[in-house]
Amino acid sequence: MSQEAVVYAINLIIGAILAGVMSQYWRLESGGVSLRWWVVAAWTLTAADLLFTLRAMFPEVVPRPLSTLTVTAGHVVLVLAAQTWVGRKPMTRAAIAVVALHGVALLGYIAMPSLSGWRAVTNGIGWGALSIGAAVTLWSGAPQLRRMMFLPAMVLASQGVFHAVRSLLATRAVVQPGEGLSEFVQLLGDLEVSLFMVALFVGVLVAFLRQGNAELRAALDNVQRLSTMLPLCAWCHKVRDDSGYWTRIEEYLAEHKVNVTHALCESCAAQHFEDSVPRGGY
């Protein structure tokens, strides 16, 4: 197995682990819509790693544009995930159009091999623009959502900057060939994949865990507030118990281990036993 295939295989293992963990968390959360797009993105990028691995091992079997186009699809789904997180309707038609447009560009490079050196430039510009778009979308959400997704947004923004630099290096490699920049650009891309997926999807999981923790804390506070309220009839002063039945307040307190003893206040004593009750009540 070549060194390139080994790198792709490592990326594949890392991606599969992250996608599996996210899928399990999504299942435990009863399939929340906001996390679904992130899970789809994780598996799409993992599928891209699989195609790159197979392409390195069997170059005659896996077409080169297919693996590249799968990466584009993964970045597009990341934008859809960001839109869902901030409460926007996912722009699925525009996403399909972006993938289709990139596919046409890749087919053009196959038809015109003399321009194939610009493939890396096109890929870097497209992936960088999608990453920046996802980051900007996350930053446009409500302040609380923006705080929760701060780390994933920074990772996506860094990814966009990385692809911008990569596109510049790829452009120079085309304009001034023979300086070894093509291999260096490819190495940067291979190393970046694992770092990007780990930083992004771990950050996403942390954000959703924080959100779930905040929702659980709010629910517990609500239960605590409700538990301090005692439904008391305004007329007969009976209490509604946990089963929905109305009982005398003495019986309710006794069931909850509160000892009750009867006494007579001054007002009732004066009203009912004005002549026989001493001052101070009983």
Describe this structure in words.
With 282 residues, the protein is an all-alpha fold. The chain folds into two domains: 3-225, Up-down Bundle (Rhopdopsin 7-helix transmembrane proteins), CATH 1.20.1070; 231-282, no CATH class. 73% of the residues lie in helices and 1% in strands. It has ten helices and two strands; from the N terminus they run ααααααααββαα. The protein has a two-stranded antiparallel sheet. The longest helix has 47 residues, at 181-227. The protein is rod-shaped. The chain starts with a helix and ends in a 10-residue tail after the last helix. The mean pLDDT is 82.
Structure described in brief:
The protein has 282 residues and is mainly α. The protein is built from ten helices and two strands, in the order H-H-H-H-H-H-H-H-E-E-H-H.
Give the low-pLDDT segments: none
Share of residues in helices:
over 70%
Strand order of the largest sheet: 1-2
Q: Report the total helices.
A: 10
Number of strands: 2
CATH topology of the largest domain: Rhopdopsin 7-helix transmembrane proteins
Q: Based on the structure given, which CATH architecture of the largest domain is correct?
A: Up-down Bundle
Mean pLDDT: 82
Distance between the termini: 96 Å
**In CATH's first tier, which class of the largest domain applies?**
Mainly Alpha
Major sheet attributes: 2 strands, antiparallel
- The fraction of residues in strands falls at under 5%
Order of helices and strands: HHHHHHHHEEHH
**Tally of discrete structural domains:** 2
What form results from the Cα inertia axes? rod-shaped
Report Rg: 32 Å
Structural class: mainly alpha
